Amino acid sequence: MNLPEPTDSPAKNPSDAVSLPNAARYQRVKLTMSVVSMALNVVVPLVFLLSGGSEAIRNLAEGWTSNSALIVVLFLLVTGIGFQLIEFPFEVYSGFIVEKQFGLSKVSIGSWLYDWFKGTLLQSVLLVVLISGMYWLLRSQPELWWLWAAIGATILVIVLMALVPVLLLPLFYKFEPIPEGELKDRLFALADQIGTHVQGIYVWHLGDKTSKANAAVTGWGRTRRIIISDTLIESNTIEEIEVVMAHELGHHVRWDVWKMLAVSTALIFISFFVIDLALTAWIDSLGLRGIADIAGLPLVLIVGAGVSLVALPISNWLSRKAETAADLYALNLTGMRDEFISAMNKLGDQNLSQKSPNAIVEFLFHSHPSIQHRIDRANAWSPASRNK
């Protein structure tokens, strides 16, 4: 998303001040749970691999069928269920209990579980398809499997980018075209002013589950659209929404989605290449039958997670640069410095963001500049720079 990331939150008056200590506590808990999740993605596969559990599940699957493709699917189902049992309590705590404790969630436990189930099912199907395809390539193209796997994963990412606004997000939220009126007229006039075309501007009914506000550029081609949460519309003036929209158009004009896709593609290719090196180097020491042995999947997950962790600060830095450039674009396009600052303050309060986080934490984990950094840059911006 292209504004401070939302988490679930309830309706509250935008004028209500959010205490800095409360925001700091909330962000600290959420960061801790993120780190725990990252650790689980490494520790659980490592224990599973070294304890012999991975080989035991492979042998169990082989006792049910001799078909290599079915063995992979059965292995994934059994290990996937086991991992979910371990991870589920942490997901409930971070995604539901913490949100309730901080007065952020509007959903019931039943509604939250329903969304969790849909998300987990969707993720599981995608993982089964991806990993099954990867192991088919490991069996059929052992020398260049990683190259074909990277190409296939990149294509999948591009397809999913197109499906996000029309298929994936509507599974969890309601969307509708922005209604007729001054806001719609001004937003489309803004798009016309810069000579860019968007397929549409849609109201994202985020307020059914949270009072946090957000907006984003999603999709590509005929599915490319800008979505603005109803909570943002309700809590901001038309001028503030206009400058937020200018930020989103900045991403559109600057091709930021495709630039970040290029970064993701590079990471995908690097990940599969390093996985190939690791499988080849550690086959014998781990007692694997070969690189296509499904019992080696925990090693694949560990190496993939390791590459992602190493790349995280770099990808976040690039993302923050894109967000800063989009902020500057919005200011140059509209000249609405005061409205931009006001919108940032409201977003920080609504999203319970820590406006001035620890610099190291921001560098390592934040895909967006802190609210205070965005405000400071806006204050330093001069209207004279608009024509430069």
Characterise this structure:
This protein has 388 residues and is mainly α. The chain has two domains: 20-174 and 252-387, no CATH class; 175-251, Zincin-like (2-Layer Sandwich). It is built from 13 helices and four strands. The chain has helices spanning 20-50, 53-64, 68-101, 109-140, 145-168, 182-193, 230-235, 238-253, 256-282, 297-334, 337-350, 359-365, 371-380, and strands at 175-177, 201-204, 215-218, 225-229. A four-stranded mixed β-sheet has the order 1-2-4-3. A hairpin with a 6-residue loop joins strand 3 and strand 4 (225-229). Helix 2 crosses helix 3, helix 3 (68-101) runs antiparallel to helix 4 (109-140) and helix 8 (238-253) packs across helix 10 (297-334). The protein is elongated. The two termini are 29 Å apart.
Q: Give the assembly state of these chains.
A: single chain
Largest sheet properties? 4 strands, mixed
**What is the number of independent domains?**
2
Structure classification: mainly alpha
How much strand content do the residues show? under 5%
Return the average pLDDT rounded to an integer: 89
Can you give keywords for this protein?
388 residues, mainly alpha, Zincin-like, 2 domains, four-stranded mixed sheet, 13 helices, 4 strands, elongated, disordered N terminus
